[in-house]
């Protein structure tokens, strides 16, 4: 066996070991966490992670989607979604971009986001005070899996 073949075999074996060490995740039926109008800028809101995700879970997979249209002003803003860590510090933050604009059309954005489980089983949502919107922006969060 040549040197290159031996190296390739070692790389393949190493990749197999890495894949085997990855945690396996469990999908669940899409379970609503919250569906809300984005009408409270500057306020952090918290929501319970559904019981479909067991207490033994290390992380939760959340499907986040935002829809916005026929609102003012024409702006791009980030919605911050996070779980809480020790001593109240955010453990892990993710951002979902929302685009509001004043016309008879809608913008959509979504993402699947992994979050470490909080000891308090809560997920938090906030968006900036600068986002002054009417009633045409909505956010939904759904739990879809865990490991």
Mean pLDDT over all positions: 82
In whole angstroms, the N-to-C terminal distance is 41 Å
Helix content: 10-25%
> Would you give the CATH topology?
Jelly Rolls
- Low-confidence runs (pLDDT<50, min 5 residues)? none
The beta-strand count equals 8
CATH class wording:
Mainly Beta
Reported for the largest beta sheet, the result is: 4 strands, antiparallel
Q: Please give the count of helices.
A: 1
Please list the strands of the largest sheet in the order they lie side by side. Answer: 1-8-3-6
Alpha carbon gyration radius: 20 Å
Task: Give the name of the CATH architecture.
Answer: Sandwich
Task: Identify the overall geometry.
Answer: globular
N-to-C series of helices and strands: HEEEEEEEE
Beta-strand residue percentage:
over 45%
Structural class: mainly beta
Count of structural domains: 1
Structure commentary:
The chain is mainly beta and 147 residues long. The protein is globular and about 65 Å long. The protein is built from one helix and eight strands, in the order H-E-E-E-E-E-E-E-E. The model has no long low-confidence stretch (mean pLDDT 82). It has a single domain, classed as Jelly Rolls (Sandwich). A four-stranded antiparallel β-sheet has the order 1-8-3-6, with no helix packed on it. 13% of the residues lie in helices and 50% in strands.
């Amino acid at each position: 066996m040549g040197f290159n073949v031996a190296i390739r075999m070692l790389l393949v074996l190493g990749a197999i070991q890495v894949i085997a060490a990855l945690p396996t995740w469990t999908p669940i039926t899409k379970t609503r966490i919250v569906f809300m109008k984005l009408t409270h800028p500057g306020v952090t809101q918290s929501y319970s992670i559904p019981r479909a995700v067991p207490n033994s879970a290390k992380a939760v997979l959340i499907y986040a989607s935002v829809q916005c249209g026929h609102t003012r002003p024409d702006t791009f803003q980030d919605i911050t979604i996070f779980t809480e860590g020790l001593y109240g510090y955010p453990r892990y933050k993710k951002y979902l971009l929302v685009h509001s604009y004043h016309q008879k059309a809608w913008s959509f954005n979504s993402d699947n986001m992994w979050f470490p489980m909080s000891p308090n089983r809560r997920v938090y949502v906030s968006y900036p005070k600068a986002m002054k919107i009417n009633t045409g922006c909505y956010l939904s969060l759904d739990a879809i899996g865990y490991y």
